[in-house]
Design goal:
The protein is globular and about 55 Å long. The protein has nine helices and seven strands, in the order E-H-H-H-H-E-H-E-E-H-E-H-E-H-E-H. It starts with 7 loop residues before the first strand and ends with a helix. Helix 7 links the parallel strand 5 and strand 6. Helix 3 packs parallel to helix 5 and helix 4 packs parallel to helix 9. The protein has a single domain, classed as thrh gene product, domain 2 (Alpha-Beta Complex). Strands 4-3-2-1-5-6-7 form a seven-stranded mixed β-sheet, with helices on both faces. By secondary structure, it is an alpha/beta fold.
Length: about 210
């Protein structure tokens, strides 16, 4: 009987707050709408959060091109590109995000086009966002589980409530620059605030083989 091949490692990372600014906060600041500053760091129910965001932008007559013009001014977080480049030189990396294909493109170009899995928006004929389509419910968890079924050992990192299922399902998982309330609620998880510390920990796991 043939033995199973050894597992390969794969890293899954959240995007906003980990590698890039929070897009909705940038939109909130640009248009002066404080209620749009609520993110997945604050609201565990993603469906509820997105419904409120869509209601607010339509109330203020903000179209998809309006939002895209704000996004075009954004850059990845300081050190994010160097971190991601070094990480990708060692291990395969997949970005798992609850953002949208219509939003994230310019920022991914600046990060040298890593693979990112996210959702899609539904846009009406006037260019306004009417709803959104999830890639699959709880996609971060489902993606990690699917990679594990493909015999990958997954190392995950994120900063928000919507990352916890991904982190918990992964073979190893960390918080990264998480807000205090998330750190407190999940004090069982190590939280890093610097890319070098996260990179060192991921590298150590890979070198040790587990």
């Amino acid at each position: 009987m043939e033995s199973s091949p050894p597992s390969q490692f794969l890293v899954t990372l959240d995007v906003e707050g980990v590698l890039t600014p929070e897009i909705w906060i940038a939109v909130a600041d640009h248009f002066g709408i404080d209620a749009l500053k609520k993110t997945t760091k604050d609201e565990p129910d993603y469906q509820l959060l997105m419904e409120e965001r869509i209601r607010l932008i339509n109330k203020h007559n903000i179209s998809l091109p309006d939002i895209q013009s704000v996004i075009s001014l954004l850059s990845p977080l300081d050190g994010a590109l160097d971190f991601l480049t070094e990480l990708r030189s060692t291990v395969s990396v997949v970005l798992l995000s609850d953002t949208f294909e219509e939003f994230i493109g310019p920022l991914m170009v600046q990060l040298q086009n890593p693979l990112v899995l996210c959702h899609r928006l539904v846009i009406n004929d006037d260019g306004y966002i009417s709803s959104f389509t999830e890639r699959t419910p709880n996609q971060k968890f489902e993606a990690v589980r699917a990679f594990q079924k493909l015999n990958y050992q997954v190392i995950a990192a994120g900063d928000s409530y919507n990352d916890l299922s991904m982190i918990d399902q992964a073979d190893a998982g960390f918080l990264f620059r998480a807000p205090d309330h998330v750190r407190t609620e999940r004090s069982d998880l190590t939280c890093f605030d610097g890319y070098s510390d996260l990179l060192s920990s991921v590298t150590a796991i890979i070198e040790n083989g587990h």
